[in-house]
């Protein structure tokens, strides 16, 4: 039976967390391997439990968005192993898109599938769905050995347990969370571990430095933003060298260790240095090697002349200023200046506010400040600040061998939290560093309490230990339990049914498995849904989760004339259009931000005390999005509703969660009647859900060549379950009366834009 033990040792009520497969509290033998294995097992079961909703009767349904493109790339890699997908004509249609995702994660999943003999889509999906869990479990082990190297088994075991609980990393390592960020975090932790080992074990310094270089290179082959993590070691170098100068000591060990690691990584990325997905990492590594060399040379200069250590940080600032001044004069130093500027703007510039949720700063206004401060995450950040103070206390009294690694761990933890402030996506790594800091804080407090009680020849109550443990761990544990609740994949339900419907009820497009040429048509959707449509419906998309095509998507949905809307669709050769409830009542602020429009001109927020109502304005009703979703395409001549999902949301009246429209030429009806008439067409419809609605369109007030013209997108025959229930009623009238005539419209008339003549 799995049991958790808390017990005293050496006369003080210090805390040990111990997982044992059997036994009792009396005289129990502690086994490091068994303890760690138990924590890993807890982590594995938690990840499986959190992702259980992705395992369905029809197979694996991936939980989010980017996972679907990773799966597409993995399938391609299995079929072309070891080559992977670098250009996809099904993205940003009809232009296609060059992919800048480094390939290691996808190739790792593909290699494991091939090794296990899985070549079917279902088999590859199942194997790949397990990979994030395995990576997450390895990360637990890495954190354990990292912290044990710098502190002791007590702190290490709790830190490993906190890593197993880390709620935001759990989302990226649960079953089917097929995203490269899980591997990105693991490789960063491994590079950190090996640098720490190199700093702590002088006799094996270069062996561990080489291993660190290998993991740094692997990180570059996993994530394009690797420089963000590798730069942490450069920050550490500045901090450590500053402290060395203050103590009058040389920094050779620090410099040579980092130069060796960076050098190995640089050599390993050389083969792909000119590719868009590797060039930032290559340039960053080269720059860091130069920076370390300059910094080390500066320290030699200062030591030789016995300059004050305070001159070193001033010298660094001066070098940074010189770099900023000469960069424009030297063409940006091979693009380095532009890379640094764009990186800083992207992470800390707030450029993605209102556009991409995960790329927004953690706090950027009063609402987000309140949300963070009065949350368990806010409490953990506060505890982490206390953990930083505890880390400094440990560093001051630690031995010389551990001190450099402890400083590096602190610099890393602070850096990851700062990254999270810049972009909330980094919670997947900062919640791990918070867990480490909280573990350090706990044992610093326990040691402090034990010493004070020992002075009075007393021992602390075990209940104090337990209370402190619960106070520090419960916020994380509660968040983890909340995150691990059974939440269905984002695509499940109406969206999944709708995607499969489109696949089964639209013409199959060419080159899906080998997307080197353009297919026959594309699908217009908001970018959030692009990967779903691409993978599950197997159709090309205009916009997807890489934000390619997003400007045209926003332009289409917010267009206020059918002419402008169809101009976008024609340029993109789009045949089908997706709308959904959330696009209006959830994603509209993002849509208007991408279009550089003011959300207040489309939606007014009315405060009723207990609730806030979102009230559409007339401008929203004028948009193509509203004309399709609210009015089923009434008043348009090219858009016909062909499918709506079964769940109806809202009221007055309720609207289907998802609607699919087809863009067609439309049958042109020319109505010959008096010039003083108002002319229109009416058609009674029923949807695939049995909902009745009326399509109405009106001709312009000015006749052309003696006839009024209007288009209708529906035929009077049943091609889809959404169909007309009778003929088109064409009418004209004025104050003197109304004339009507029924008209049958064929599918050919609609698809070929044929002209039908009517005389009234």
List keywords for this structure.
single chain; 760 residues; alpha+beta; Rossmann fold; Immunoglobulin-like; five-stranded antiparallel beta sheet; four-stranded mixed beta sheet; 27 helices
List the helices and strands and how they pair.
Blueprint: E1 3-5, E2 18-20, H1 32-50, E3 55-56, E4 59-60, H2 66-79, E5 87-88, E6 97-98, H3 104-115, H4 121-150, H5 153-165, H6 167-173, H7 181-200, H8 205-220, H9 226-247, H10 252-269, H11 279-304, H12 311-326, H13 331-348, H14 366-373, H15 376-397, H16 403-422, H17 427-455, H18 462-483, H19 494-505, E7 522-524, H20 530-537, H21 550-558, H22 562-572, E8 574-580, H23 581-585, H24 588-594, E9 603-607, E10 612-616, H25 618-622, H26 624-629, E11 639-644, E12 648-649, E13 655-656, E14 658-663, E15 667-672, E16 678-686, E17 692-698, E18 708-712, E19 723-724, E20 728-734, E21 737-743, H27 747-752, E22 755-759
Parallel strand pairs: 7-8, 15-22
Antiparallel strand pairs: 1-2, 3-4, 5-6, 8-14, 9-10, 11-14, 12-13, 15-18, 16-17, 16-19, 16-20, 20-21
Low-confidence stretches: 1-28
Span from first to last CA? 87 Å
Overall mean pLDDT stands at 90
CATH architecture of the domain at 543-663: 3-Layer(aba) Sandwich
Which shape, going by the Cα principal axes? elongated
Q: Give me the number of helical elements.
A: 27
Tell me about this structure.
With 760 residues, the chain is of the alpha+beta class. Among the domains are: 543-663, Rossmann fold (3-Layer(aba) Sandwich), CATH 3.40.50; 667-759, Immunoglobulin-like. Helix content is 53%, strand content 13%. The protein has 27 helices and 22 strands. The strands form eight sheets. Strands 16, 17, 19, 20 and 21 form a five-stranded antiparallel β-sheet that branches. The protein has a four-stranded mixed β-sheet with strand order 7-8-14-11, with helices on both faces. Helix 4 (121-150) packs parallel to helix 7 and helix 7 packs antiparallel against helix 8. The relative contact order is 0.08.
